[in-house]
Specification:
Blueprint: H1 2-38, E1 63-70, E2 74-75, H2 79-84, E3 86-88, E4 91-92, H3 95-98, H4 102-107, E5 110-115, H5 139-147, E6 151-153, H6 163-177, E7 180-182, E8 194-198, E9 201-210, E10 220-221, E11 224-225, E12 236-237, H7 243-258, E13 263-269, H8 280-292, E14 296-300, E15 305-312, E16 319-326, E17 328-330, E18 352-354, E19 357-363, E20 368-374, E21 377-383, E22 387-392, H9 393-398, H10 411-436, E23 445-446
Parallel strand pairs: 1-5, 1-23, 2-5, 2-17, 5-6, 6-7, 9-12, 9-13, 13-14, 14-16
Antiparallel strand pairs: 1-19, 3-4, 8-9, 10-11, 15-16, 18-21, 19-20, 21-22
This protein binds zinc ion.
The site of zinc ion (ZN) has 5 residues, from loops.
Length: 447
């Protein structure tokens, strides 16, 4: 009957339309993933470039969450700092070091820095001549935790200053006091690298330090030969012969991606001291790490800030930020303690540091990006009887008295100059990276 036939035709048409719609939806989803997996040059960094993190299943419109990840340069303790913090025999208080940056550090969802000393205990003494072998009182860690830091990177050229014993005791103290660490370990039951979960965003962290010397038969850092038994305790690489490093680091990169890392950050201790520009070795290593797939490089060791640069992967599909050197977060290196010959005339630059902050956005389909980056310029103010405090420059210059800049006759003037010096090295690279961001999902809403 005509009426029945008509009904059948409508039913068939409806079925075909449902089928077409299903095909279109599935193909759109695949396109989104493929774009991301292959690395769309119009977007910044795709965490899915490794192709090993399955996007989380989604229903309805996309949402996203954002976190901030803060880092810091070299935290060092020279004798004047230790003397200035001494309250009595064996009793030290370093709280004022970090009191003014606390508000910035605490505000970040996750805060890290390079801990460039050992906690080798009182038997190696603290007040007598140490250099070039560092040892700081355990209470330094209380001020770091008090400021809001969550994790310390421990692979640097000073971590072996008191051998395997120093590495192990340092780890014990960090564990006892309750701060996480990456770069060294007590024994082979744990790893030197890891994923940290920050409010549901998984960040893979790997940390290596440069070796010294060129004798193939022995690995040295800071001139010290590392005993064979201690080699597994710390992550080192040879800048002149980086191939074994590349192999190992790529393995670890893949391992952490397979374990679900949304973002991969490598923290390096490298370069030449007191040089304001990265050398060709650093540039070549940065290129290789970008090509492996890392989303960001944070580095230090030169004791001065080196520029922030955008690195483009060799295939042209990805761009990542590289902080070539974050400078000294705190130390007694300054224009009064160093000779110009020692630092190629860059003494004043050793007073400058920064707190880079990365804003990381993860969409509900699993795509994760470093959406924008910042550097927060800092400067070490030494005043009075060997007192040291880290000055957050933008905040302090707006209210110098509140940040004690008038505690010395030169504080305010030097702080102003420091801000200009750091902006000259970092502002352009940071702006270049941030200009690349193009939201791949403009209709997504914040969770
Ligand atoms: Zn160093």
């Amino acid at each position: 009957m005509p009426k029945n036939n008509k009904g059948l035709i409508y039913l068939l048409i409806a079925l075909v339309m449902v089928l077409i719609l299903t095909v279109v939806i599935v193909s759109c989803k695949n396109n989104t993933r493929n774009t991301n997996t292959n690395g769309d040059p119009s977007t910044i960094v795709s965490s899915d470039d490794g192709g090993n993190t399955e996007p989380e299943p989604t229903e309805g419109p996309l949402t996203y969450k954002e976190i901030t990840f803060l880092s810091g340069g070299d935290i060092m303790y020279h004798r004047p700092q230790i003397r200035g913090a001494k309250l009595g025999e064996g009793n030290y208080d370093f709280t004022i070091n970090m009191q003014y940056i606390k508000q910035l550090v605490e505000k970040a969802d996750f805060a890290t820095a390079n801990f460039e000393t050992t906690l080798s205990g009182p038997k190696y003494n603290y007040d007598k001549k140490q250099f070039p072998f560092f040892n700081a009182p355990d209470s330094t860690v209380d001020s770091i935790i008090g400021a809001g830091f969550d994790l310390l990177f421990t692979a640097n050229n000073h971590c072996y200053d008191h051998g395997g014993e120093g590495i192990k005791r340092t780890i014990d103290v960090l564990n006892e006091k309750g701060i996480d660490h990456v770069g060294t370990r007590k024994d082979e039951s744990t790893k030197t690298y890891k994923i940290v979960d920050v409010k549901g965003i998984k960040i893979g962290l790997i940390n290596y330090t440069l070796e010294s010397g060129s004798d193939d038969s022995v690995t040295r850092i800071n001139g010290n030969a590392i005993a064979n038994a201690d080699l597994p305790l710390l992550d080192t690489f040879n800048e002149a012969k980086p191939d074994p490093f590349y192999v190992e680091v790529e393995q670890r990169y893949k391992e952490l991606r397979e374990q679900g890392a949304d973002i991969m950050i490598i923290v390096l201790h490298w370069g030449v001291e007191y040089q304001l520009e990265p050398n060709n070795t650093q540039k070549a290593i940065a290129q290789k790490l970008c090509d492996i797939g890392f989303d960001c490089i944070l580095a230090s060791h030169p004791h001065v800030i080196q520029p922030v640069r955008v690195i483009t992967s060799s295939d042209g599909t990805r761009k990542i930020p590289c902080y070539y050197s974050m400078g000294n977060l705190i130390s007694n290196q300054n224009r009064d303690s160093l000779s110009s010959g020692e630092t190629s005339g860059h003494n004043a630059y050793t007073e400058n540091g920064m707190l880079p902050t990365l804003t990381i956005r993860k969409y509900s389909n699993g795509e994760t990006y470093i959406k924008d980056i910042e550097y927060y310029a800092t400067w070490v103010h030494k005043y009075g009887n060997e007192k040291f405090t880290i000055i957050p420059l933008t905040l302090a210059l707006a209210d110098p008295n509140a940040y004690g800049l008038n505690n010395s006759s030169t504080g305010l003037e030097r702080a102003k100059k420091a801000k200009e010096m750091t902006a000259g090295l970092c502002a352009a690279g940071v702006a270049e990276y941030n200009a690349l961001w193009k939201d791949p999902h403009p209709n997504a809403t914040a969770e």
